[in-house]
Amino acid sequence: MPSIFKTIFQIVSVLLLLQGSASTLARDTWKGVDRIVAIGDLHGDYEQFRAVMTMTKLIDDNGAWIGGKTHLVQTGDIPDRGPDSLKIIRDMRALQKRARKAKGYVHLLIGNHESMNIYGDLRYVHPGEYIVLRDKRSEARQADYYQRFIIYMTANESETIIDDAFKTQWMKTYPLGYVEHRVLWQPGGELGSWVRKNSTVIRINDVLFVHGGINPHQPFLSIRGINKTISEELGKTPLPEGALTNAEEGPLWYRGLANNPEESELPALLNMLEHYKAKHIVVGHTTTRGVVIPRFNGRVISIDVGLASQHGSGMAALLIENGQFFSIHRGTTIPLPATDDGLKEYFEKIEPLEPNPDYVQKIIRLLEQPQPENVE
Question: Is residue 288 domain-shared with residue 229, that is, in the same domain?
Answer without folding.
Answer: yes
